[in-house]
Amino acid sequence: MSWPRRRVEGGDLVMCPGGDRMVLVPGTATGRSDERPAPLPEGWVRPSARPERLALLGVDPGGAETTTLDEPAAEALVHEAVRGRVVPALSAALRTGTLAVPHRVRVAVERLDREVQETSLAIEETALHAQEVLVRAGVRPVVLKGLATAHLDHPGPHLRQMGDVDLLVGPADFAAAERSLLAAGFASMRRAGGSELTPAVPVRSPRGVEVDLHRLPTRRPYGGWWLERGEWPDLATCPPHGWAVLPRADRLVHAVAHHVLSTGVHRRLSSVADALALWPRTGTDEGWPDAVRRWRAATLVSTFRRLVAEDLGIGLPELPGCPTGSPRWYEGSVAGGRGVDAVLLYYGRLSAVPPHRAPAEVWHMVFPGPEALCRAGHRSWTARTIHGVRHLYRSRRGTGSVTGPGS
C-alpha cells in the first residue's frame, strides 16, 4: 500500500502504517511542483483581476514581477486563504516569489501550511481506512471533491487543502455503508433533530477526522437525477490508492455545483481552484456536454462563469458543445439563491425519502413547526424551548430524531 505523504519544508511528511504518527523524511523535496504555475490562457484574466487573489487559486497572475503586499493587506489575504481553504496555494506563491509579504506574515503562513499538510495526511489515511472497511462490506464508494482533485487535477496533492472525507455511496448502499463504519469504530455524528432528508451523514474516525457519507453528490435538485436513474458515468481511478472517482467532466460539474449552490462560509475558493484546474483549455469535446446534461447543470455553469467574472475578474469561455438556452424556471431560482430555493431544496431531497415518509415531509416543508424553524436558524426563545423539550422527550423514549407532520 502506498502510504500518504506531503511535501513540506525540509523533506516529505509521511504517515506511518496504522496512522498513529507522522515522520519527516529529510531531503530536498524534489518534484514538489513549486515552480510558478502556468498562466491562464490569453483573454481569461480581465483587468479587474487582483494578482494576489489569482495566486490564491494557484494561478500565475502573469508577468515576472512579484506582487508585494504590506502587512495589513497580507494579513487580510491570509484570512481569505484560511476561509477559502487555499492556504497551500498561498504558501506556494510565497515560495516561488509570486507574492512577497512581511517576514512575520510569511512565518505564520509556513506554520499554517504545515498544519494543513498534517491534517491532509490524517484525512487521506482515514479515507484509506474507510475504503478498506466499505470494500469488505461489499460497498464501493466514490471519492469526491478534494481527495480526488488533489491527486488528479492539481500539480501536486500538497497544493489542495482538504477539510474532510467525502464518499458517495448512493441510496442503495447507504445503510450498509453506515453500519459497517460504525462497527469498525467510527462514531456517529448525526445531529439531534436532524432530518432524514439530509443527503450526507457524517461519522467521525478514531483519529477525529470527519467522513461524510453522501446519498447524492449535491444538496440540490441537480446531482441526484442521474444517480436515481442508475445512469452512473464511467468512473475513473485515482492513483496512487486506486480509489473510484468521478470522470474529469463530472468532477468539473461537481466543483461548479458545489460553489454555486453553497452559501456563506461554505462558498470557498477551493472549489473555484478545482474548477479552474479542470476547465478545458481547448475546444475539444471531452464529455462536457454529456456531464452537463446528466447533472442538468447548464444554468449552474453559466452562473459560475458569471460569479468568477464578477468576484475574481476571470472570464471563462463556454464549455465546448454544452447546451445553452433558457433555463427552466426552478433552475434559475435555485442558482440565483432566491427565496423559492428552500422549497426546491426539499423537492430535490424527496427522492431520498421512503414513500411512506414523503407525505410527512411535504407537510413539514409547507407548514414548518417551531423545531424546524429553530434548525433553520430562527432562534426565538419559543422555538428553542419547543425544540429542546421535544428532543428531551424523544431521547427518553428512544425515538431519536424522527420528524413527523407539524414537527
Automatic annotation (TrEMBL):
Cross-referenced Pfam families: NTP_transf_5
InterPro entries in UniProt: NTP_transf_5 (IPR039498)
Protein name: Nucleotidyltransferase family protein
Originating species: Iamia majanohamensis
Organism phylogeny: Bacteria, Bacillati, Actinomycetota, Acidimicrobiia, Acidimicrobiales
